[in-house]
Write a structure and sequence with these properties.
Layout (H helix, E strand, L loop, with lengths): L7 H13 L6 H13 L3 H13 L16 H14 L2 H13 L6 H13 L3 H13 L6 H11 L2
Length: about 150
């Protein structure tokens, strides 16, 4: 796919072209673009796209069934983009924002944030996130434990 590391700039170019010619992006398009920006190290752009989705401005003129919302997939894409770019603090902040706007995180979102902490060599925030998982009754999986062990190993 165009979100592979070697093609992230092409994916971003296509995103810009799509918007420039007036094609209205859908939520999956935003998620793919966030991934491409993350692969290229441009986590700030991923967060901007998430903010754009969250603002609701894109839903004007759309029927209620077609309104765009930032759901857990969009938040997780932004968290993953931050993780890929090494921006662990931003990944944790997005997870916290997600919990506050009723986009209930799942194990994938939590794992992405824990992995971001692991990459940033930050075991304490990773352990706090794991505690939050338990508080919200989200069962940790193998990825959770592996990332936690790796984060503690620094």
């Amino acid at each position: 796919t165009l979100t592979k590391r070697s093609a992230w700039s092409e994916a971003v170019g296509l995103w810009d072209e799509m918007r420039w010619i007036g094609i209205q992006p859908e939520e999956p398009d935003f998620i793919l673009a966030m991934g491409a920006f993350g692969k290229g190290g441009h986590w700030q752009e991923s967060i901007s796209l998430l903010d754009e989705l969250r603002s609701g401005d894109l839903s004007q003129g759309r029927p209620a069934s077609k309104r765009l919302v930032a759901d857990k997939r969009a938040f997780t894409a932004a968290i993953s983009a931050c993780r890929d770019a090494g921006a662990w603090q931003q990944a944790v902040q997005i997870l916290e924002d997600m919990e506050q706007v009723s986009a209930t995180p799942d194990v994938v979102a939590y794992n992405a944030a824990i992995s971001a902490c692991e990459k940033g060599r930050q075991w304490e925030p990773a352990e706090r996130i794991a505690s939050e998982m338990k508080r919200w009754y989200v069962a940790p999986d193998k990825v959770t434990y592996s990332s936690l062990i790796s984060a503690c190993g620094w």
